[in-house]
Each structure stands twice: as C-alpha cells, then as structure tokens.
C-alpha cells in the first residue's frame, strides 16, 4: 500500500498555501527537493530528492527514503552504513515544492559520504575577488 | 564586475569534494538550490534558487539574491518588503550542487509571502492513511 498525493492541478493557490491537503509539486523528473536537518540542533545535514515512492515510504515507515539521482534508484539512506534517519518532523513550504525533514541519525553517525557529520562542511568566501572554499570548523 | 565560477567539468571528484576552488554545479536550467536558514536559530526559512548572476551578486554584496523561477527574473529578496537578507555564512555541500545560506532578516520580518516567518509552516502527517497538513506552532 502506498500513500496517494493530491495532484496540484486539482488545487487552487489558496488550497496549496492554506489547505489541509498535501499536494506536493514534483518537478518534471518526478522529484521534490528535501532539506534534511538534524533534529538535535537544526543544522542542515544534506539536500536530497524524493519521488512519490520515496515520500510515501518515508511517511509510512518514519525512516527517510530518497531517490538517488546518480544511481537512479530508491535510496533508503543509511541502509548500508547503518546511519538510518528517523523522521521527527516533515514539513512543506508555502507552494509545496520543497520538504524539510528533521531527523535523528542512528548512532549519531556521519550523514555525508565523506564521513563528515554534514554535507555542508565548506564555507564559500570571496578572496581577492575569487570564490574560494574553506573547511568550516564543527 | 562579477565573480567567475570554476566549471565542474574542469574538476576531479576529489577537487569537487576536497578542493579549495568553488565549482558550483548549476542544473540544466542554470540554477542551483539554496537553502536559507535563520542565523539566529538555524531554522529553515525558505528554499530558493540562484543562477550565476544571483550567486555572484550575493557574494559581492553580502545581500541574498535569487532567481525567481515564477517571474523568470533576478530577485533581490526583500527589495519590496524591506526584509532584506544579510548573509552571515554561505556553505556548499560535498558535490557542490546545493548551497546553504545563514542570514539575518532585516526587521526580523517574515520571509514567506504569506507573512509567516518561515515558508515551512505546515507539518505533513499520515492521518487514517492519508497525508494531511497541519499548521505548526511557532
């Protein structure tokens, strides 16, 4: 069994912004952007994408599932590493074209494949007019 | 004058993940996803998109600029409302296809066009097997 989502084409702007029906706007590839935050301190851990199946599984199981664009397959984050993400809250934005998950990461393990806690480990700055990256301190 | 960004095609996987050169991966529409957080408490305020010009202006001025997909034009957030976003930090993720901005919103005003502080004001839950939205308490 999977969760059915209301098509946005059935909804008015007011329904989408203020209504109680969840009508996620998937893009032309059938994906919606998901921002993933650590429920402990709100810090952004990663940005990923979900298709309808991944979103449905996330809602049904309480464990975050995504669509891997590089591998073109369903991705139960942490299935291999053990760093599963338990969803504490799932929110959507005004036009329902983005999701925000607050999660608990199993084992407080790294989210990033580089073994860092967050994928956002580098700061962008202008140095002598050029954009450069520096590693953030945790 | 605008900031030049390194094309990802010139970079190895190691350069992209560990190097000091900023080589943002713009999508086929020339856009990169930007997660915008309140610098005060890390809460996610909105998800937007930048093209190279918006990203360059953001770095040069310290004020967040985006590309409005609905209006197909450069968007200096808050130019009309006064709720300009001063960038406190700008980070990128491991594969440099997403950005995260921590901002101070002028006047502590609303970020969302619905006059709410954050665009993520609704929680998604399964109720009797259907996905429903409820307004989050602030």
UniProtKB/TrEMBL annotation, chains A, B:
Reaction equations catalysed: 1-(5-phospho-beta-D-ribosyl)-ATP + H2O = 1-(5-phospho-beta-D-ribosyl)-5'-AMP + diphosphate + H(+); 1-(5-phospho-beta-D-ribosyl)-5'-AMP + H2O = 1-(5-phospho-beta-D-ribosyl)-5-[(5-phospho-beta-D-ribosylamino)methylideneamino]imidazole-4-carboxamide
CC cofactor: Mg(2+); Zn(2+)
Entry superkingdom: Bacteria
Keyword Cell division (UniProt): no
EC number in record: 3.5.4.19
Transmembrane segments: none
Cofactor binding note of this UniProt entry: Binds 1 Mg(2+) ion per subunit. Binds 1 zinc ion per subunit.
Localization per Swiss-Prot or TrEMBL: Cytoplasm
Functional pathway: Amino-acid biosynthesis; L-histidine biosynthesis; L-histidine from 5-phospho-alpha-D-ribose 1-diphosphate: step 3/9; Amino-acid biosynthesis; L-histidine biosynthesis; L-histidine from 5-phospho-alpha-D-ribose 1-diphosphate: step 2/9
GO molecular function: magnesium ion binding; phosphoribosyl-AMP cyclohydrolase activity; phosphoribosyl-ATP diphosphatase activity; zinc ion binding
InterPro entries, A to Z: PRA-CH, PRib_AMP_CycHydrolase_dom, PRib_AMP_CycHydrolase_sf
Binding-site residues, Zn(2+): 94, 112, 119
Residue intervals of the Phosphoribosyl-AMP cyclohydrolase domain: 46-121
HAMAP family: HisI
Designated name of the protein: Phosphoribosyl-AMP cyclohydrolase
Organism annotation: Paenochrobactrum gallinarii
């Amino acid at each position: 069994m999977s969760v059915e989502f209301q098509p946005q084409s059935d909804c008015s702007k007011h329904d989408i912004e203020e209504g109680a029906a969840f009508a996620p706007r998937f893009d032309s590839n059938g994906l919606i952007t998901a921002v993933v935050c650590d429920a402990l301190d709100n810090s952004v851990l990663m940005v990923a994408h979900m298709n309808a199946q991944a979103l449905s599984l996330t809602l049904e199981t309480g464990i975050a599932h995504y669509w891997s664009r590089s591998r073109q397959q369903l991705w139960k984050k942490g299935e291999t590493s053990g760093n599963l993400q338990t969803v504490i809250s799932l929110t959507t934005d005004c036009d329902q074209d983005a999701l925000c998950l607050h999660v608990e990461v199993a084992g407080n393990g790294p989210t990033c494949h580089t073994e860092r806690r967050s994928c956002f480990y580098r700061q962008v700055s202008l140095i002598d007019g050029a954009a450069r990256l520096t590693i953030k301190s945790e």
